[in-house]
Design a protein that fits this description.
It contains eight helices and seven strands; from the N terminus they run E-H-E-H-E-H-H-E-H-E-H-H-H-E-E. The chain has helices at 14-26, 43-54, 65-70, 98-112, 135-149, 164-174, 177-183, 200-220, and strands spanning 5-9, 29-36, 58-63, 117-119, 154-156, 227-228, 231-232. The model has no long low-confidence stretch (mean pLDDT 88). Bound molecules: zinc ion.
C-alpha cells in the first residue's frame, strides 16, 4: 500500500509553516520536527510548538547542540552580527551543514515513524547563497539517504522554485495566509509576525508580502460589488 505519511522539517518560520500546511493537504499523517541547536532565539522553538499545536500536528523537538558547537554563525552566537553576504561571501547567518544535518535526522525520524516522505521549505530562488538550499544538493542527499538506509524516502521541496511573493500566494491558496502572516517567526531578531523589519530575513519576507498584496489587490479591482452593512451582493 502506498505510504502517505510525512515528516516536515519545521522551524516555525514563514516557509516551513507553509510547507507544514501544504503537507497536511498532501498526506494522511503529518508530523513536524524542530531542531534545537541553541539558536539565537529559543523563542523560535516555542513559536514552532504553538503553530504545530494549532494545526493539530504532533511535534518533535530534537536536540542538536552539537551543531552549535561545530558551527559558529550569527544564528548560533549572539556576538556575531547579522550581515548579508557581499562580494560572493556567504551571509554571517549561514550555519554550515545545517540543512544536510536536519534532513538526515528528519529522515532517520521518518524511518522510526514509518513515514516515507520528508518535506522541507528550502528554496533556491530567493536563496541567500546557502549551498544546502540548492535543488541539486537535496536530490543528491535523497539518493545518499536511500542508500544509507536501504529505503525509498522522497524529499519534497514545494518552495524550491518559488520566490517570496509566490510563497505568500501559496499560503493564501492553502488557507493559512493569516496564520503565516501573524504567528510565524522569520526575523533574525526573534520578533514574531512582521518582525523587526530591518534584518535581511525580514526585508525578504516583507518585500514578498508587499508584492503579493499589491498583486492581490490589482486582481480584486474591477467592477465594485455593492455592499450593505458588510453583506456583499454578487
Ligand atoms: Zn527582522
Amino acid at each position: 500500500m502506498e505510504n502517505r505519511r510525512a515528516v516536515v522539517v519545521f522551524s516555525g518560520g514563514q516557509d516551513s509553516t507553509t510547507c507544514l500546511v501544504w503537507a497536511q493537504r498532501q498526506f494522511e499523517r503529518v508530523e513536524a520536527v524542530t531542531f534545537r541547536y541553541n539558536q539565537r532565539h529559543e523563542e523560535e522553538v516555542e513559536c514552532a510548538r504553538r503553530i504545530a499545536d494549532k494545526l493539530g500536528v504532533t511535534h518533535h523537538v530534537l536536540d542538536l547542540n552539537l551543531l552549535n558547537q561545530l558551527a559558529p554563525s550569527a544564528l548560533t552566537r549572539t556576538e556575531i552580527e547579522v550581515t548579508a553576504g557581499s562580494n560572493g561571501e556567504l551571509p554571517s547567518t549561514f550555519v554550515p551543514g545545517r540543512n544536510h544535518i536536519f534532513l538526515s535526522f528528519a529522515t532517520i525520524l521518518a524511518r522510526q515513524l514509518q513515514a516515507k516522505h520528508i518535506v522541507t521549505g528550502v528554496c533556491e530562488t530567493d536563496f541567500s547563497g546557502y549551498p544546502d538550499c540548492r535543488d541539486v544538493f537535496v536530490k543528491s542527499l535523497n539518493v545518499t539517504l536511500n542508500l544509507a538506509m536501504d529505503d525509498q524516502f522522497v524529499i519534497h521541496t514545494p518552495l524550491m522554485w518559488l520566490d517570496k511573493k509566490e510563497t505568500w500566494a501559496l499560503a493564501d491558496q492553502l488557507g493559512c495566509f493569516d496564520l503565516v502572516r501573524e504567528e510565524t517567526m522569520t526575523c533574525y531578531n526573534g520578533i514574531i509576525g512582521p518582525g523587526c523589519g530591518t534584518c535581511p530575513a525580514c526585508k525578504l519576507r516583507n518585500r514578498g508580502l508587499a508584492e503579493y498584496l499589491t498583486e492581490r489587490e490589482a486582481k480584486h479591482e474591477g467592477p465594485v460589488t455593492p455592499s450593505i452593512d458588510g453583506i456583499t451582493f454578487r
